UniProtKB/TrEMBL annotation:
This is Uncharacterized protein. The chain crosses the membrane at residues 6-30. Keywords: Membrane, Transmembrane, Transmembrane helix. It comes from the Bacteria.
Length: 157
C-alpha cells in the first residue's frame, strides 16, 4: 500500500464519517422538530382550555348582568305603568268629586300611595342590585379564583 492509496483511503473514511455525522445531525433535527410540534400542540390545548374557562366565566357574568338589567328594567316599566294608573285614578277622583273633604282625603292618600310605591320600587331595584353583587362575589368570584389557581398550577404539574 502506497502513501497515495493510504491518503485516499483515509480521505474516503473521513468523508464517510462526515456523512454519518451529517445524517445523525439531520435525524436529531427531525426529532427536535417533532418534539417542538408536540410541545406546541400541548401549549395550544392548554391555552384553549384556559380560553374556554374565561369565555364560560364571561358568559356567566353577562347572563347575570342581563338578568339584573331585566329585573331593573321590568321594575321601572311596572312602576311607570302603576304611576300612570294611579295618576289617572286620583286625577279622575279630583276632577269629578264634588265633596271637598273627599278630595282632600284623596290627595293625602295619593301622596301616601306615591311615597309608598316609590319606596317599594326603589327597594326592588336595590335588592336586585344587592343580589347581583352577592352572586358576583360568591359564584363568579370563586370561579375566577379557580381559573387563576389553574393558570398558576401548570409549572407544578
Amino acid at each position: 500500500m502506497t502513501m497515495e492509496t493510504f491518503l485516499l483511503a483515509t480521505i474516503a473514511l473521513l468523508e464517510l464519517l462526515a456523512l454519518a455525522m451529517l445524517c445523525q445531525v439531520f435525524r436529531l433535527l427531525l426529532i427536535g422538530r417533532r418534539e417542538a410540534r408536540i410541545l406546541n400542540s400541548h401549549r395550544v390545548a392548554a391555552n384553549s382550555a384556559i380560553q374556554k374557562s374565561r369565555m364560560d366565566l364571561l358568559e356567566v357574568r353577562n347572563r347575570a348582568r342581563l338578568l339584573e338589567d331585566s329585573v331593573t328594567g321590568g321594575a321601572t316599566a311596572v312602576e311607570k305603568l302603576h304611576k300612570a294608573i294611579s295618576n289617572t285614578t286620583f286625577g279622575l277622583i279630583d276632577l269629578f268629586s264634588s265633596d271637598e273633604d273627599f278630595r282632600s282625603s284623596a290627595r293625602k292618600a295619593r301622596l301616601s300611595h306615591d311615597e309608598t310605591s316609590q319606596k317599594i320600587y326603589r327597594t326592588v331595584r336595590t335588592t336586585n342590585r344587592a343580589l347581583h353583587i352577592l352572586a358576583d362575589t360568591l359564584i363568579i368570584g370563586q370561579a375566577e379564583k379557580r381559573l387563576v389557581a389553574r393558570k398558576r398550577r401548570p409549572g407544578a404539574s
